[in-house]
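Might you be able to consider the sequence and fold that I enclose below?
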Amino acid sequence: MSEMIYFDHAATTPVHPRVVEAMTPYLTEVYGNPSSVHGFGRKARQALEKARDEIAGSLHVDPQSLIFTSGGTEADNLAVIGGALAQQGRGRHVITTQVEHHAVLHACEYLEQIGYEVTYLPVDETGTVRMSDLERAVREDTALVSVMYGNNEVGTLQPIEQIGRFLRERHIIFHTDAVQAYGVLPLDPEHLFIDMLSVSAHKINGPKGVGALYVGKHVPISPLLHGGSQERKRRAGTENLAGIVGFAEAVRIAEAEREERVAKYKQIKAAMLARFQEAGIAYHVNGHPEHTLPHILNVSFPGIETETMLMNLDLLQVAAASGSACTSGSLELSHVLQAMNLGEERAESAIRFSFGITNTVEEAELAAKKIVQIATRLQK
């Protein structure tokens, strides 16, 4: 049996061997609670704060502005719900987009249930928010805006700095879900006028179950978890020390290798598209042609339903995805592609390929060859 080609790194990534190595002592030897005052606890606390410094450094922010969470979903919920609740005095209106991750969309739906009003901004056919729509949506009682950095399904990058600058002038809190952008793009929330920013470890070859939320110095936030004074009373619960240490190691590696990784992902993307082009199969690339994440490629193959293509790929040892991981397994059309108004056929035949550190250009060539075989057979 040939080796499986894993093109689903946007869903999750393999843990880097160096990350496993960094975590091991914190699962076996350094088992103290970071909140304990004895030697065991102090040693754990030291490791926790060293990891916090490392991750904060990658974002050019004050270590005290980071809140460790159980992942990107919790970070998004804490930002959207915790941010909105803390801003009630200002108003109960929140703005987001139709193409957010479900962690943001479902958090907004929860706010609607408790009496908030949410505006869901449309996007153009590339998946980009129009500044004019945002400007029109902002009101006196707008308390919070959440717009993702780079889309997890089609890769489109939003005009984050422009949005941030506009909102900063109006003193409106701005959150961005940067889970897919972290590790592949340089992020500096303070320069981009971002008040809150979510990241996750398992998208950058760290462990599952750990993430972080950056919260700017003067940004109020209401905790969602109660029961302890951890994370400066903003997130109760004993910190996942081994996970956080692993996260910091993954960040260290990603930062050191970023340029080289990005160059490789671009080569992989180009190699696949060149093979489709040469073979003359029918395909459409979804998302913005230039302002896009380097590791995500979303392609529609007209005439072949998403599920059919995925099953055929799986039989040929290629793992890809339909839209976001949280909704795969369900046959619903991608909410992102629907919002982009590309037509039903494009939405029903879309596949997301996402690349990571284990992939090579040779694999891309091989996978593309298999895709061409399937398309040639099924598009007749």
